[in-house]
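Example record

One chain of 156 residues, shown exactly as stored in the release files.
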Amino acid sequence: MIDVDDGREHFRVIVQGNRSASWRANLMLVGALAVVCMGIAIAMATQGFWMIIPFAGLEVLFVAGCLYMTLRRLSRKEIITVEPQAIRVEWGYTCADTSVALPRRWSRLEYDCKDSPFDCGDLAFAAHGKRYALGRCLNRVEKKKLYTELSTALAR
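Predicted structure tokens for this chain:
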């Protein structure tokens, strides 16, 4: 997801992964899975297969853990701010964990996209021999859109 804020003083883009469901919706999914798994496990336990119950519980915990890790990863934001003299890139979850300020004059935007349908492309700012990847959570179309927006902002 790309959110563009084109102000007079600066140009700001907020990049975040697409989350198809909220944490609450995922908890409802885990709850429904737990009811089904435990129902089957209890039915099997009445037939004498009682060892199924702990594994059914572990299965539900594993799915809940995977959903949490996925939503946590998708909540990471990239904030790219293009100012008259500098480009600032910030990465973080609730606040900026990492921040880089690049001189606008010496920075360049690079986008390399191969023809392979499995490759989403590589978008990055480069300055002083270092590269800073952008839009890791985006698909090919969104990366092209981000490249176009940033190229337009840098051309001003």
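Notes: The beta strands are 2-6, 11-16, 77-82, 86-92, 98-103, 108-112, 122-127, 130-134.
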